[in-house]
Amino acid sequence: MTTHLTLRQLQAFLAVARLGSLAPAAEEQGLSRAALSQSLQELERQLGATLFDRSGYRLRLNACGETLLPLADELLTRALQIEQQFARADALPTRLRLGASDTIGNYLLPRLVAELMTRFPDVHVEAEIHNSQTLCAQLQRYELDLALIEGEVLDQGLTATPWQEDELWVVAPRDWTWPQGEDAGWAALGKQRWIIREPGSSSRVQFEQLVLPLLGETPATLTFNTSEAIVHAVGAGLGCALVSALAVRERVDDGELLRLSLPPRLSRPLTVVRLASRYLAPRAAEVLAWLSGKA
């Protein structure tokens, strides 16, 4: 069987699918815009299908393009494996693009990457930190291989593997006291200001799902986009917060913050997430198995 498709055509297709227009994709591929456009047109001609919906300079995958995307990505990944399998001993290591949400990224990721690099010395790790919504979108766009995310993942196109359990604490300023005449409980906390994460963060979802029903009313809120900023905001006396014990344990032990211990015990799962339809290279699959074994 003879095929006229080329890896360069598929590389051009993936670049445009990821970046959404010809100019940045051409720059990434080291081609002129005209050459990249010709490569895409030839690919569409050979397949007998249009792969993108075009609106001005923007190109968006249509149904045919979405069908080709995981197949093209797998083919190029396997082609890279072949090159690495037969490369010289000084060839570049396997690349693992790893994302992490805020708390994991700040408090668990550095040590985890150190362990990973010791166990898999041939793997070159590229790590970045974003909120959960951004990480899921990056997985969908093939910009990440794996993501470490706090909380549940509801997108059916993603596969989540349990990793760890993260205990959640309610904390207040160190000089905080229960309001006069109020019983120590969730109802009293409903009258306080709460410091919360931005929409799209799993910490925001956990506040809305775990804490709001207990408060009995919607409290005043103040929003920050990092856990560290929330911890400092609580320390500055701006309100209460629901945060990971990882982020505040030392500050509570040192007396900088006050932990409010109320039933029930609150926690969230930490998961390793990947795109279900995407082919996972063997080395990345080994890393996933290793992470799963650390649950």
UniProtKB/TrEMBL annotation:
InterPro entries linked to this entry: LysR_HTH_N, LysR_subst-bd, WH-like_DNA-bd_sf, WH_DNA-bd_sf
Keywords: DNA-binding, Transcription, Transcription regulation
One Gene Ontology MF term: DNA-binding transcription factor activity
Pfam families documented for this protein: HTH_1, LysR_substrate
Annotated HTH lysR-type domain residues: 5-62
Family: Belongs to the LysR transcriptional regulatory family.
Entry protein name: LysR family transcriptional regulator
Lineage of producing organism: Bacteria, Pseudomonadati, Pseudomonadota, Betaproteobacteria, Neisseriales
